[in-house]
Amino acid sequence: MNQHTLLFFGPLRDEFGVSEMVIEMPENCDVGHLLVHLDIDSNLVKVAVNGAIVPVSTKLPMDSEIALLPPVSGG
């Protein structure tokens, strides 16, 4: 199992009740598996791993920082 630090922004921070958490995921896990585990629709967020926006097929490197970024809206 690998540990990852998750960073939540916007409505996801409200939904999870925290801005940051540590989660363990199996080795060779990808971003898509993480989103399924968290019950987050991959079409509704962008994911940054260690500071770079990545596709859901990206394998999670050991001990990574993962930012979950909901769409931005404004007026």
Tally of separate domains: 1
Rounded to an integer, what's the Rg over CA atoms?
A: 12 Å
What share of residues are in beta strands? 25-35%
Q: For the report, how would you describe the main beta sheet?
A: 5 strands, mixed
| CATH C-level label | Alpha Beta
Q: How many strand elements?
A: 5
pLDDT averaged residue by residue: 92
CATH topology: Ubiquitin-like (UB roll)
| Span of the ends, CA to CA | 43 Å
Q: What's the CATH H-level superfamily name? A: Beta-grasp domain
Explain what the structure shows.
- It is built from two helices and five strands, in the order βαβαβββ.
- It is α+β, with helices and mostly antiparallel strands and 75 residues long.
- The chain has a five-stranded mixed beta sheet.
- Strand 3 (46-49) and strand 4 (52-54) form a beta hairpin.
- The chain is globular and about 30 Å long.
- The N and C termini lie far apart (43 Å).
Mind sketching the topology for me?
Blueprint lengths: L1 E7 L2 H6 L3 E6 L5 H8 L7 E4 L2 E3 L10 E5 L6
Parallel strand pairs: 1-5
Antiparallel strand pairs: 1-2, 3-4, 3-5
Q: Concise description?
A:
The protein has 75 residues and is of the alpha+beta class. The chain is 19% helix and 33% strand.
Keywords:
5 strands, 75 residues, Ubiquitin-like (UB roll), 19% helix, 2 helices, globular, alpha+beta
